Amino acid sequence: MIVQDIVDYMEGIAPIELKESYDNVGLMIGNKKDQVKSILFCLDCNLEVINEAKLKCVDMIISHHPLLFKKPSSITTETLQGKKIIELIKADINLYSSHTNLDSVKNGMNDTMIQLLDLNIKDAYIMDKSSSSIEKAGIGRIIELTTWITAKELCYTVKEKFQLKNIRFVGDLNNKITKIALINGSGQDYFELARNLGAQCIITGDTTYHFVSDYKEMGLFIIDVGHFSCEQPLFKIISKNIEDYINLKDPTVKVFFSEVEKEPYEIF
Fold first, then answer.
1. Which pTM does this prediction carry?
2. What is the tens place of the pLDDT at every residue in 54-88?
3. Per the annotation, does 217 bind a ligand?
4. 123 assigned ligand-binding residue
5. 64 is in an annotated binding site
6. Which domains are present in the chain?
7. CB-based contact 237:217 (threshold 8 Å)
8. Is 103 annotated as a binding residue?
9. Looking at the keywords, is Metal-binding present (predicted)?
10. Residues 37, 42, 47: CA angle, nearest 5 degrees
């Protein structure tokens, strides 16, 4: 198996045309003709993960968040981004990233959140449909439940399914909820759309004070799982599906899931 084989498969399940205009996805660093004998999946390609990849003799890293989100004007060891790029090149490690295209696509990050929460739903549809020709793709999902659930019960479910000790929330725990907006990662740019679509609750990560304060006043219940805690379990589920494909095509390729990446925030 070569890098090109991985690229073709990744772009088959999450076409690049589905990425948001501000995003940068695809093969970030590498040679499409390189042989791939081992792959490491991670949410973020940070220095710890790169060191982990080197220790495990990995040929290729597949991350959700792109290292080259903002294209550098120079590549030197004087910047964090430059250090990462140089370390990858020196270690001959290819890097591929699938970001908002993977969020948007059918059976991508958003749909995997529906799967993980495993609520009793009667309908689900896309919040912000993609302008591409690809069907059933777009950012965010609205789910309608078969019967109402209290906000408190929903908080318990989110904590259990995402395996978290605590979550942040805004609103009345006694609220009865039947319609929920799901936006993996940082979703507050879609709050108004979610409200206009009739969502009574939004589950996302990376919310900020003024946004949640305003939407609390408007009556929405908001669950902030945290960016890492929201996306890492979803990406791992998808990564395991990719592993199944790789094992089918070439059983000799070793697949790893990062053991060093973790939630950057800590509670004191």
1. 0.95
2. 999 999 999 999 999 988 889 999 999 999 999 99
3. no
4. no
5. yes
6. 3-102+231-257 (3.40.1390.30), 106-225 (3.40.1390.30)
7. no
8. yes
9. yes
10. 95
